Amino acid sequence: MDQTKLSVWEKNYTFLFISRLIKISADCFAFNSILWFLIFDGKGAIGTSLLLAVTFLPEAFLAPVTGPLVKRSALKFWMYFSDLTRAAVVITIPICYLNGFSPMWFVLGLMIIHSATGATYNPASITLIPQIVNENLIQKANAILQSSSEIIRLGAVTLCGVLLTFIGPATTLVFSFIFYIISGLFVLCIKYTIIRNQSQSKSLAQRGTYFARLKRGFTLVKNHKILYPLAIYCIFMNLAASPWEALSAVYVAEDLNGTPFIHSLLKATTAGGAFLLGFILAKVKINRYGLLFITAGILEGAAYFIAGLNTFLPLVFLAAFAFGAAISSINVPEFTIIQTSVEGDDQPQVFAVIHMITNLSLPLGAIACGYAAKTLGAGSVIAIGGFIEIIAGIGILIFTQLAKARQSDLVKEKEASANM
């Protein structure tokens, strides 16, 4: 078939697209509703800090453990199971609250379950894309989802804020419940067929037990000439991002003498940058994903460095736009590299391993930069994070094969990893 006649907007991708956007809205409603639920219930800083921890850590720790269970034949099941479980969690909280039972340990315990289900949903959804989209359109499919997700996330946070003001957190959680149910229904509408050649079937049979598949995920990442440096740089990226994520509100208030409205505008500017670059990547075909990945990381580091050292507000907004642009320029090639250079049945486990390695560095970095900011100031810590990302990017660029890898190299790595 002529490539010009191919379209990413086939029925199955459309169902996945709608499901993902609705699920993102549900996640935003759930997190912000529970955040303000804890604040209004008098739990304060301790409650919100613990909420951040239980939102990220369970998913990061469990992803490699559940990865071997996420097989290509059951991707829909794991995605639907995740939506259904999260729906049950978010509806339980308002029901118990209305009956006079809402201790913090109970709410946070439910949020641990909420986070843990992401350990299966995210690897499954990433692996599903190559099953329902032509291989020449994988980059475009990822870019569309990335750019659209940022805009939907911004809109969902805004709408959730309005609802929280007028109807309160408990009632707002009902909307999250409805969104999760609708997302799950769209997942069930997706149809796909797995086609394996003889060598793939043989290699799949050789993977053996659960523990063999668990070990295989780590081994693949370690021995992969492209994914290993990618995973290493992801660690430095998240360490560099943690000061901005943790301290941006403090930086705006104390160093820039800004208001919460200014902070919201910075978030909106970041979302705009992510949308624009995602839109461009949906139109332009990239051959060297690794080079784009590293370049985006270095530019993101430069943006952090500039924002941290300068209190000139227009320059900070320009840096915020660069953050957003880097988000799409990092996530799209990362997903595409995994989908292109790893055999389908290994993709959930490989994604889970990289997700765990990189996501653990974000909360750890946030804790460290919180203490450092007391001595050095928020702006200086943000700038140091950016400097680290720049130096790490230059090192990855010079000393690894990530930047040199082309589409043909990804295919070769896929064949090599399948027989590993």
From TrEMBL:
Listed InterPro entries: MFS (IPR011701), MFS_trans_sf (IPR036259)
One of the record's GO molecular function terms: transmembrane transporter activity
Cellular compartments annotated: Cell membrane
Keywords linked to the UniProt accession: Cell membrane, Membrane, Transmembrane, Transmembrane helix, Transport
Membrane topology category: Multi-pass membrane protein
Major site of localization recorded for this protein: membrane
Residue ranges crossing the lipid bilayer per the database entry: 21-39, 45-65, 77-100, 174-194, 226-244, 264-282, 289-309, 315-338, 350-373, 379-399
GO cellular component, one term: plasma membrane
PANTHER family for the chain: ENTEROBACTIN EXPORTER ENTS, INTEGRAL MEMBRANE EFFLUX PROTEIN-RELATED
Name of the molecule in the record: MFS transporter
Species, as recorded: Bacillus paralicheniformis
Phylogenetic placement of the source organism: Bacteria, Bacillati, Bacillota, Bacilli, Bacillales
